[in-house]
Amino acid sequence: MNLYFAESQALSSTTLWLAIFPLSYLIHFAEEYWGGEGYPAYLLRLRGVHLSTRRFIVLQAAGFALLIAAGLVSSLLRFPEFMLAILGAVVLSNGISHSVTAWRDGRYGPGLVVSTLFWIPLGAVTLFLMLGRLSNGRLAVGAMIGFAINGAVALITMRGGRLARQT
């Protein structure tokens, strides 16, 4: 009985930690949408990529749905710590990307505040907390998957925007 309670409590705290990611994603999206010139205009100015506001919203909604699905599936199939490693790496690398891009541009970019004040710390703390809960190998694989997801999202944004401009 005590073992079940301890496992249930650990799963509950992990599930709550997983819930932080979609909530923070909504805040990040709001800043990208309303912050500064807005992310689509920022992307056009900085990279020459046309991403319509509608397409931006659709992509963001898909990302939000995937985050919710990731939390639910990983909890149901009992790999929430591994998913936390993946999501921690995603937000950490996205936060670093926003920060480096703004630094190179020399001014604010939509999403920068949430990235620097919330996502970089959230990602770093999450990965740190997984040190004792996952083997080093599983943590490294989870982090690599998270970094690859962030790279894929950037590629989809850049290619998707260019394809939309050509049609």
Describe the protein.
- The protein has 6 helices and no strands.
- The protein has 167 residues and is mostly helical.
- 85% of the residues lie in helices and 0% in strands.
- α1 runs antiparallel to α3 and α1 runs antiparallel to α5.
- Low-pLDDT regions: 1-7, 162-167
Structural class: mainly alpha
Give the fraction of residues assigned to helices: over 70%
Quickly count the helices.
6
The largest sheet is: none
Strand content: under 5%
Distance between the termini: 62 Å
Query: What is the element string, with H for helices and E for strands?
Result: HHHHHH
The averaged pLDDT comes out at 89
Count of distinct strands: 0
Set out the fold topology:
Blueprint (H helix, E strand, L loop, with lengths): L1 H33 L4 H9 L5 H24 L3 H26 L6 H19 L5 H31 L1
Helix pairs in contact: 1-3, 1-4, 1-5, 3-4, 4-5, 4-6
Quick overview:
The protein has 167 residues and is mainly α.
Main attributes of the structure:
167 residues; mainly alpha; 6 helices; globular; disordered N terminus; disordered C terminus
